[in-house]
C-alpha cells in the first residue's frame, strides 16, 4: 500500500454544491490534484490555521489540539485511506503519551483541520489518487496561477480605496462574524500598507 504525501493547494467556494467549499490537495512533487468538498465550518477552521489567524475563542479543532497536547498525545499523520460512493474516509494517526500508535477515524475535513494544527503530513493512497485525482498539465497550472493573480489584483483594487480605519473596522467585523477568509484579505491589505 503506497502512501503519497499531499499538500494543501487552496480552498475555494464549491461550484457544484451551495454553501460548500472545495479543498484542493496536490501531490507533493507531482501534478495530480485531489479536490474534496467540505463544509463551511471546516473550511474556515482550515483557512484560519493556514492564514495564522487567532480567533477570539478557540474553535473545536483548537480545543481538540489543546486537549491532546495536555494529555501528551501528538498527531503523526493524516491518511485519506478510502473513497466509497464519492465520500473520502480518513484517519488521524496519533502517538499516545506512553508511545502507542493510535488510529482515530475522522471525517477528512476534520482530520485535515486537526492535522495542520499539529503540522502533520497528509497522505493518501496511490489507488485513491489514481481514481479521484485530477492530472493538470502545464497549461492548466499556468491558467490557474493567472486567474489567482487576476482575482488578487481585483480584490486589492477594491480594498485600496478604503482607509486604514475602514479596513480595521471591516476586519474586526469579519472576525466577529467568523468570516476568516475575508478577515485574512483585509489583514493582508493592512499589512501591505504598514
Largest sheet: 8 strands, mixed
Number of domains: 2
How many β strands by DSSP? 8
What is the N-to-C order of secondary-structure elements (H for helix, E for strand)? EEEHHEEEHEHEHHH
- What portion of residues is helical? 40-55%
Q: Helix/strand/pairing class, anyone?
A: alpha+beta
Point out poorly predicted stretches.
145-157
CATH architecture of the largest domain: Roll
Anisotropy-based shape: globular
Instruction: Please give the CATH class of the largest domain.
Output: Alpha Beta
Separate helix tally:
7
| CATH-defined superfamily of the largest domain | Bifunctional nuclease domain
Question: Major sheet: order of its strands?
Answer: 6-5-4-7-1-2-3-8
Mean pLDDT: 84
How far apart are the first and last residues' alpha carbons, in Å? 50 Å
Give a written overview of the molecule.
By secondary structure, the protein is α+β, with helices and mostly antiparallel strands. It folds into 2 domains: 3-135, Bifunctional nuclease domain; 138-193, no CATH class. It has 7 helices and 8 strands. The chain has helices at 40-50, 60-70, 108-117, 126-132, 138-160, 164-176, 180-193, and strands at residues 3-13, 20-27, 32-39, 74-84, 87-95, 101-107, 122-125, 134-135. It has an 8-stranded mixed beta sheet. Strand 5 and strand 6 (101-107) form a beta hairpin. Helix 1 (40-50) runs parallel beside helix 3 and helix 6 packs antiparallel against helix 7. The longest helix has 23 residues, at 138-160.
Amino acid at each position: 500500500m503506497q502512501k503519497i504525501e499531499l499538500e494543501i493547494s487552496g480552498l475555494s467556494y464549491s461550484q457544484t454544491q451551495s454553501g460548500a467549499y472545495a479543498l484542493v490537495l496536490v501531490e507533493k512533487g507531482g501534478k495530480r490534484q485531489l479536490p474534496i468538498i467540505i463544509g463551511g465550518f471546516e473550511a474556515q477552521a482550515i483557512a484560519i490555521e493556514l492564514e495564522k489567524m487567532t480567533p477570539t475563542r478557540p474553535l473545536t479543532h483548537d480545543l481538540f489540539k489543546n486537549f491532546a497536547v495536555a494529555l501528551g498525545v501528538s498527531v503523526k499523520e493524516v491518511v485519506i485511506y478510502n473513497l466509497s460512493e464519492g465520500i473520502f474516509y480518513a484517519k488521524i494517526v496519533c502517538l499516545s503519551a506512553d508511545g502507542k500508535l493510535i488510529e482515530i477515524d475522522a471525517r477528512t475535513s476534520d482530520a485535515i483541520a486537526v492535522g495542520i494544527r499539529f503540522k502533520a503530513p497528509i497522505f493518501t493512497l496511490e489507488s485513491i489518487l489514481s481514481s479521484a485525482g485530477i492530472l493538470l498539465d502545464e497549461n492548466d497550472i499556468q491558467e490557474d496561477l493567472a486567474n489567482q493573480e487576476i482575482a488578487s489584483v481585483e480584490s486589492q483594487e477594491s480594498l485600496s480605496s478604503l482607509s486604514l480605519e475602514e479596513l480595521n473596522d471591516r476586519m474586526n467585523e469579519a472576525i466577529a462574524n467568523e468570516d476568516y477568509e475575508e478577515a485574512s484579505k483585509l489583514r493582508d491589505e493592512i499589512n501591505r500598507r504598514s
